[in-house]
Amino acid sequence: MSGRRALRLRRRLLRVAADLTTWALVLAVAFPLFWMLGTSLKPSAETFALPPTLIPAHVTFEHFRTLLFETPFPTYFLNSVIVATGTTLLVIVVSLLGAYSVVRFRYRGRRLAAQMVLFTYLLPAVVLLLPLYLILASLGLVNSLLGLILAYTTFAMPFSLWLLRSFILAMPIDLEEAAMVDGASRVEAFLDVVVPQALPGIISAALFSFILSWNEYLYALVFNRQDHTKTLPPGVITMLQQNTNTEWSLLMAASVMMAVPVIVAFVFLQRHLTSGFGAGAVKG
């Protein structure tokens, strides 16, 4: 009996130690975010006060007001929303259809085509910078949001295609064949069976594409030089370069505003990551 009690006590201690380690890692990762939020709410005079404090003594929203009404930040924010959303939608449509084609159809060169798509994902983004710029310039899409969406699609789509390919490979083809035997067309079987089953992969690919497009700096800096077409990463840098002294509180306020859509998108979509498992397996 004492041996069992000792074993239970050891398991509890190990569980407590694991929980404490997990929370310590979470706090270590989250601490910069709390510091960023606290700094954005501090008056400028309190930013470098000694000793430094995580929680501001006097909360102010002046930096957010300045950011929204006295800088071009809202324009950059709207541009980023359009580019990230457009890229995500385009990537999901193209990669889902491409993954389905590679898995379900038999044609010459399909395996090579899939491998070449993966190879383009392995290339550094800077390698494609000049070719993409020349292509977009010839199409008249430099300094446009559409050009940036197409550029981001080139390196978000390969990863998404391979991710969705693995989901479709894991689906039994019997479900689609049963739907078509019941009178569904190939398109209807794809929409009613494949898409619900691949929903977790679709959401994961959507999150990847959105975050990549939202945070990307190099392509946005090179392709869109006009102020009204800039997205947040190069736009905020340009905004700060206009001032001789870096306003850290304003920068932290901009960082908080930039982080909110990504956090909201993840919180909203992660609830549905498992909603696709089993969906469409039973014909209604």
TrEMBL record:
First-listed, main subcellular location of the protein, grouped into a coarse class: membrane
Pfam families: BPD_transp_1
CDD domains documented for this protein: TM_PBP2
GO terms of biological process kind: transmembrane transport
InterPro entries: BP-dep_ABC_trans_perm (IPR050901), MetI-like (IPR000515), MetI-like_sf (IPR035906)
UniProt domain ABC transmembrane type-1: residue ranges: 77-269
Assigned keywords, A-Z: Cell membrane, Membrane, Transmembrane, Transmembrane helix, Transport
Localisation per UniProt entry: Cell membrane
Membrane-spanning segments: 20-38, 76-100, 112-139, 145-168, 248-269
Membrane protein topology class: Multi-pass membrane protein
PROSITE patterns: ABC_TM1
Annotated GO CC locations: plasma membrane
Family: Belongs to the binding-protein-dependent transport system permease family.
PANTHER family: INNER MEMBRANE ABC TRANSPORTER PERMEASE PROTEIN YCJP, MALTOSE TRANSPORT SYSTEM PERMEASE-RELATED
Protein name: Carbohydrate ABC transporter membrane protein 2, CUT1 family
Taxonomic lineage: Bacteria, Pseudomonadati, Pseudomonadota, Alphaproteobacteria, Rhodospirillales
